[in-house]
Amino acid sequence: MSRWFQFVTSSIRLDIDYDRDHKYEKGANLRFDAYLAYRGNKSSGSHEWHLWHEAHEDRPLNCEFTRSQTGGDDGYYSCEEIPFFEVGSVHYEEYLVNIRLPAIKANEKIGKVADIHFVEIHQNGGFTKVWFTIKTIVGPLSIIILIWFAKKIKSLRRDPVLLEKALFALGVATAFMNFPLEWLTLWISIPFMLLVTDIRQGLFYGMLMSFWIIFTGEHLVDQPERNRLKTYWKQIGAIGFGCLSLLVFDLCERGYQLHNPFHTIWATKVGSNLAYAFIILAAVCACLYFLFLCVMVFRVFWNIRGKRAAIPTMSRARQLQYQGLIYRFEFLMVVTVLCAGLTVVFFIISNVNEAQWKFGEEESTVEISSALFTGIYGMWNVYVFSVVILYAPSSAAPATDVAEEHERLELRSRTEVRLTEGDETEESIIYNFTGKTAQN
Fold first, then answer.
1. Where does the chain hold its CATH 1.20.1070 domain(s)?
2. pLDDT one-digit tens code per residue, 341-359
3. Cα separation of 372 and 377, whole Å?
4. How many C-beta neighbours within 10 Å does residue 174 have?
5. Phi then psi for 167, rounded to 5 degrees?
6. How many CB atoms lie within 10 A of CB 119?
7. Which of 53, 107, 216, 359 is deepest in the core (most CB within 10 A)?
8. pLDDT digits (tens, 9 = 90+) for 421-435
9. Can you give the pTM of this predicted structure?
C-alpha cells in the first residue's frame, strides 16, 4: 500500500451453494470475527505484524436463489455485497485482514458458504497528487484574497453591512476548506482525516447556502427589512439544522469507525432504514432549497425589470454606467443559480452513491469521476473569488463620507439613478445592492 491512497474501504461477498441439509433462511444475519493488523517496511526497522483492531460483528445477509441451467433443485444464491471495514488513513505499507465465521447457531441459517470474495477500494495515487497540487495552489490564494477583502472592509469609515459580513464568512469557510491539510497524511497517521474532510465540506455547504439566501434577499428592493441577520433566521436556521443532522449522521458512521473500523450504521435494519430516510430527506430538502432560491432570484429580476424602464430617460453617460452595472449583476445572479443547481446535483449524487455502495447494489452503482469532483471544486472557488472581488469596497471611493457619491462609486453598494426634468424637479430611483435602507 501507499500513503497516497489516503483511505481503504472494503466489502465482502459470499458464494453460497444450495444444500438441502444447510439451507439459507431469508433474513439471516452473518456473524463474523474480524482482525486487522499492519506492519511497516523493512527499512523502518519494524517489520513485525501488529494487531490494530479486532471486532465481532453482525451483518444482514440478503440473497436470492438462482437455479442452475441443468434443472432440478441444484443452484446457488446470489448475495449482495456486505460492508466490511473502512480506514481513513493508509500509513503502513502492508495490512493483513483475518475473518472467521464461528460455528454458532446464528450462522447455521446462512447456508453452505463456498467462498468469500473481498473488494478493496482506495483513492488513486495519481489523482491524490493532482488533488494535493490543486489545493496547494488554491489554498494560499484564497487566504490572500480573504486578507485583501478584510483590509478593504477595515479601511471604510462605516460599519460593514450584512452582505459584506456574509462575504467575509464565506471567504473564511472557503479558505478553511482549501487549506492543504492532507499533506500531513504523508508523514503522520491521521485516521480521522475523512471525518475532518466531511466537516470542512459541510461547513462550506452551510455557509454557501446561507450566503445565497442573504445575497438574493438583500437585493430585493421591496423587502421591508434589510441588513439584519434576524430577517433570515428561518432560512438560516433550517440550513443550520440540516448541517447539524449531516454532522450527527457522519459522527455515527465515520466518527465511531475511529474506535472500530468494522462498524457501520448499515449493519442493522433500524440503522439502514434511518440512513435511507436521512438520504431521501436530505435530497428532498436540497431540491426544495434550490426551488426557493430560484423564486427569490426571479423576484429580484422582476424588480429590476420594473425599474429599468426609467433608464432610457437619463443621459447617455448614465445609461451606459447603470446598464453595465445591472447587466453584470444579472449575470452574477444567473451564475449563482447555475452554481446552486450543480451543487445540489453533486450533493444528491454523492449521497446516493454512498447509499448504493453501502448496500452493495452493483447493478445501479453511480460512478463519480475525478473530473466531476475537481470540476465542482473549481467552480466553487471561481464563484467565491469572483463574488468577493466584485463586491469588495472600491478603492476609488473618496475619503470623505459624502453618502451619495461614496455609495454610487461602489459596485456592491446601492445604485442611485437620478432623473432630471429641466432645472426644477429631480426624482431618485434607488436599487439597493447592499441591504442598507435607501435614503434620498
1. 125-390
2. 888 888 777 766 554 444 4
3. 9
4. 26
5. -65, -40
6. 14
7. 216
8. 333 333 333 333 333
9. 0.77
